[in-house]
Task: structure prediction
Amino acid sequence: MSFAPPTPGVAVASAFQRDGFVILPPLLAEDECEQLAVELSKLLGVQQKASRNKLGGLRNLLRICPPVGALAASPKITDWLECLLGRTVFPVRALFFDKTAASNWWVPWHQDLTIAVAQKVECQGFEGWSLKTGIPHVQPPAVILEGMLALRFHLDDCTAANGALRVIPCSHLGGKLLPAAIARMVATSPEVVCEIPRGGAMAMRPLLLHASSPARHPAHRRVLHIEYATTELGGGLKWFDA
Ligand SMILES: O=C(O)CCC(=O)C(=O)O
Result:
């Protein structure tokens, strides 16, 4: 835990605000990366055994995986994010994704519109309630999503060949997009394939359009995805994991 990433400068912070994502210098030391990879692969193996479907990942890691909770809340990470955003942040959800030959999934272009909350409370501007692994999820107003970011730690080399995330720069600037606007943007805007080495990371806004293709050459593509918020929800609603 002695590894200290360089503080983000003004250029990194303004690129993030403009583009909606930024590929970062390594934030994890090799031993931290290895420990997380081992821990999360073990947990995924346990949940795979208990599930009849092939799983592409894990949810609720702030709660079920103490090393993830500790990393997410560590000053090394939160201080760094606070420099990037100029605001206080707190972790609210952590997910793990892996892509392998046995579970070679993909996702179409989308924005991340859903958050996990402690309890369902009907509240103006919060819609599309659902349950994921028994936990209430809801789509909050855009202003909540605009204050959030996801930090994605790469636990393997991630390339176009093993299914790297693809993003459309600046697509977060138009708020929540309707399907026709997404189709238009996908047809007319250049995309970036986020190739990131093991130990590297990227930060992205949830409203940034992103997609994920199946791997052409499947190999582990493990990503720890931690979401941070900057505001309470109000209206009696509470974040599930804050
Ligand atoms: O990790 C990926 O490739 C896709 C992740 C994703 O679509 C998401 O976080 O919403």
